Amino acid sequence: MADQGEVKLLKTWSSLFGLRVVWALKLKGIPYESVDEDLTNKSDLLLQYNPVHTKVPVLIHNGKPICESLVILEYIDETWSQNPPSLLPQDPIQRASARFWAKFMDEKALPSMWQAFTKKGREQEEGLASIAEKLKLLEAELEGKKFFGGEEIGIPDFALGWLVNLVPVFEEILGLKIVDEERHPSLSEWSRRISDIRVIEESWPPRDKLVTKWAAIRDHFLATARASSG
Amino acid sequence: MADQGEVKLLKTWSSLFGLRVVWALKLKGIPYESVDEDLTNKSDLLLQYNPVHTKVPVLIHNGKPICESLVILEYIDETWSQNPPSLLPQDPIQRASARFWAKFMDEKALPSMWQAFTKKGREQEEGLASIAEKLKLLEAELEGKKFFGGEEIGIPDFALGWLVNLVPVFEEILGLKIVDEERHPSLSEWSRRISDIRVIEESWPPRDKLVTKWAAIRDHFLATARASSG
């Protein structure tokens, strides 16, 4: 295998966007140094390498930064194209479909999930209805396939990774089911398929720490909403 | 030149997202059939080919649809890689940078511009402050370069196309300047460079029709806001 150069990843212990990059690097067998950021006290490295958003993840390859998780995934796939698996299908129409769904997960599904999780009352109901509608589309898209791109795991699967490890946490905190076997057989099977991949399983943040963290985030959002309407 | 296959583009006469695709096809010299949609009465073709968003643009290549303008641009670049110009730089780091800025223009700059245009009072002030901040970053990024990707026009330039043809329309309607020579010398020069490209200049929708359309859209948003707060 060719020299990979120096690869460093700025992330946090719980960032769902950071995990996408961890999975890609690990699946492709690319050695890297992981640097955990504290977003309440951002490092000079983060401010220097992602001055526009000052957010994680940032991949630093031979001293050059790449920001935005979906952009990083494309970079990894192009730079280490010799390392399987390919993160995008080879066929241009299928590549376009994979990119379409990755965008959909970030721009449509995730905001709906976020609304369902951080709001209450009517706004939460709307968020739940909205995520249900998005899941219906994802379920239909996935039917009969192993992964969103076909036979191989790839960028859209990473983009929906939060469904596998974060939605169960949200369900526990909210005390309701969002994804279930009956309405979402393909998504449920896909979730198990993702969870069974060793390098992904090994990288899950501890469940109890996630529950504590996200319960506090929800409380914070509800308190802020009360304060601004009170 | 190889057979291009059958290329059809669903768009509207004024869609800024549709124009991105028009420019890419024309610059690469790809013959296509243009189908203008009426979004108040969507065609069966649009509902069939973009069932998820039912939005333009949709590129249909040999009967297969590709949706989302940035995804379409990547598809065009991959499928007709032999036709210059390349819409992304060859170097992986520069490709990542081009994708980063295209995302920034869609996800950060355009929503700020939208807020500045469709709101009034304090909300509009916030929108204007926000777009000013985004333009400062874009100005710094562009300094010393012909286009966002370097020497060649490409995806991030198309993604910011609305700055060239739509912002002057917004400025006229609002009666204020958003982009100016003094604060934005590089963006101003870039705008002229884009406007001077013949296939882009030819594709501008008529200025007076744009002013009428967007003034009506702004009135609609302000009336809706009054109705919901009144």
From TrEMBL, chains A, B:
Record-listed E.C. numbers: 2.5.1.18
Record domain GST N-terminal: where: 5-84
Gene Ontology cellular component annotations, sorted alphabetically: cytoplasm
InterPro entries: Glutathione-S-Trfase_C-like, Glutathione-S-Trfase_C_sf, Glutathione_S-Trfase, Glutathione_S-Trfase_N, GST_C, GST_C_Tau, Omega/Tau-like, Thioredoxin-like_sf
Position of the signal peptide: 1-24
GO molecular function: glutathione transferase activity
Source organism per UniProt: Linum trigynum
Major enzyme class: transferase
Claim: Signal is one of the keywords in the record: yes
Domain GST C-terminal, first and last residues per copy: 91-214
PANTHER family to which the protein is assigned, alphabetical: GLUTATHIONE S-TRANSFERASE, GST, SUPERFAMILY, GST DOMAIN CONTAINING, GLUTATHIONE TRANSFERASE
Record key words, sorted: Signal, Transferase
Protein name per UniProt: glutathione transferase
